[in-house]
Every structure is written in structure tokens, then in C-alpha cells.
Amino acid sequence: MIHSGHNSFSKDKPVPGMIRDTEAIINNLRKINPEVRILLAQVIPAGKLPKYSYIPELNQELATLATRLLQEGVRITLVNQADGFDWKVDTVKDKVHPNAAGAKKMSDKWMAALLPALGHPKILAYEQLRLWHGAAPGLAAKLSPEKDLPQGRVFHVSVPTLDVYRPHRANGVTLIICSGGGYKKLASGPLGLGAVDEFLEDGYTVCSLKYRLSPPSANVVKDAWMDGARAVRLVRSRAREWKIDPERIGMIGFSAGSNMILNLACKHDRGDPNAKDPLARLSGHPNFMVLAALWLNKQNKVTDWAIHPQLPPTLILSASDDLTAPTQDTEEMAKAFRKAQVPVQLEIYDRGGHMAFNFPSPKAADWPQRFRKWIKQLNVATKR
């Protein structure tokens, strides 16, 4: 793993020397072990200017170097540490070195490269993708820095992302995992990785969505479902590359994640064929959805939802002792689905509470098996 240190001045035009020295390091490593796997990072940006204004040029030349060495048979992977790193919020006071949020972003990028490089038995490839080019729509001017807590929980999300885990043998179906947390926090880590351990071996492509939260969002329900639709579009746009079916993309939500998915599905967003953004031309509508511990939020009555016949086939999971998302609400929701002639299956468990279906150790332990049985009987390619 090479994230090369440097402390030159832009006026010295140091990039050619840095590239020369980086290649020398790689060549020395290969003399020791010709089969060594090199992870070469592009450098994080800095706000200490003009001293470090050469970094964009350096990163471009690092990419050129990696491409050339790859063509020469070197086992090298370029790790883009620059993309998504904002020195204004991701560095300490010196505007150069990463703070806790910046370090987390960097470690996520290293993990993206390390998992396939280390030969994870289930993961062919992993990558983290930003949903939006630049700032997300409607983003406030002043942002609170994203905060991470143990066990993968995160607060203050303003840069939504999609963690993509691809299996060795894809079955064509993609699962977008949408964690809960009341739109104020997100348990993206445990649920995303738990779903990978559960479903990747079956050939599912598993994606973990990190959608916007409040704060900083001023309209978090809308922002979150827009992120959900964007994630569906992004997956569809990569269908050929990932060897998946663009009409077999499902979303699995937990609590607020289920709320977000249902909001998205009710919008029936099929894309705008005249949009300038190619992604916006694609449908943001999932082909099926799993609503676990469906939390209604402020939409307290089923009649507050625009349930329509074009909703995708749905599996609803509920626990009778769930006080946050009562089974009575899910039963009424299933009834509304049936009235609209939407294929729906309701599975009610006696115990487990609001966290009954959460990974990594769901109390309703057999729900993934029930899901597999349901999806096997389901024609998820049916367009609704």
C-alpha cells in the first residue's frame, strides 16, 4: 500500500521526480517479490495553497503510471483517495492532514481495494460510489461534518454513497440495503456487511446505501428518497459491467429505510428521457422491495400514502412485539396493497421487537430463508 509522502513546493515543479521515485519504490518491491500486489493511492487534496497546488497534476500522473505498469504486467491497483475528499471538512486546522472524518474516508477507500486484493472468499470486487456529481441537490451551504460511531453507525450524512459488493458468480439480481435510524443516524456498516455475508454467496450483488440525514438536511424525507432513486439509477447504469439484470433490482429496508423505500416507490419515478444528466433518464423505480419493521414516521395513517397499482411486488416483515412499527400498521398497509392489486406477502413473527430483522444477528433468524423462497416464486423482471 503506497500513499506517498511529499513536502515539496509547487514552484519547484516536483511531479516528475515524485513519479520517478514512486516507480523506483515499486521496482524495488518487485525485485524482492515479482508477484507483489501494489495498491497505489492518489493523494488527498490540500487547502495549503499555493504550496500544494501540484497535487491534481501528481494524481493525473500517478494514474498514467498505474496504467502503464498494468500494461507491463505489474499487479497494481490505483486507489482514488482524492475523489470525495474535501479538505474544507476532512482535514485538521493545517488544511493538509486528515481529521477523523477524513481518515474514515481514506480507510474506506483502502478497504475497497483490499477486500478483492486479499481474496475475500465471497467478494469479487468492492467499490464505493458517490451518488451525485458534486453536491447533492438542495444541499445546505453550512454542513456539519459527518460523524462515525462504533459498529458502523454514522450521523450528519451529506454526501450519500453506495457501497457495492459484487459476487464471483452473479445471479443477475441486485439487493440495495437501506438501513434505519429515524433519519437521524444510519447503521450502514452492520447491515451492509451483514447482508454481504448472508446473500453474496447466492450470487446477489449487494449494495449498501448511505442516504442523507437530518441534520444537515432540511427536508430529509425527500432528500432520502431522492438518494434512493439515484442509487437505483446508478445500479441500472452499470448493469452490463456488473453482469446484472437492470430489471431485477430490489431494495431491502429496515425501519426508516423501509419508510424511504416506500416513499420512493409511491413517487413512481420512471426518469426523464429529456434530462441532461444520463442517469436522470433512467428509471429510479425498484423491481421489488422488502419492507422490514416498516416505520410510518409522520405518515401515521395508511391513507397518507399514495398506494397505487404500479408499486413493485413487496414482502413485508413485522414482529408482533414491535412497539415502534406496530404489526397493525403493516397489516393495514398489506391490505391497501392488495386493494391496489399489488402483489404483497406479509410475514409476522411473534417476537423480536423493532430490531427483529437487523443484521448481523437478526432475532427473526429465518427471514432470509423466507425471502429466498418468496423471490424464487416471484417474477422480479415484471415491470410495474
Automatic annotation (TrEMBL):
The residues covered by the BD-FAE-like domain are 162-269
What is this protein's record name?
Alpha/beta hydrolase fold domain-containing protein
Pfam families from the UniProt entry: BD-FAE
Q: Which organism is it from?
A: Oceaniferula flava
Domain of life where this protein originates: Bacteria
Keyword 4Fe-4S, does the record have it?
no
Q: Name one GO molecular function term.
A: hydrolase activity, acting on ester bonds
Keyword terms? Hydrolase
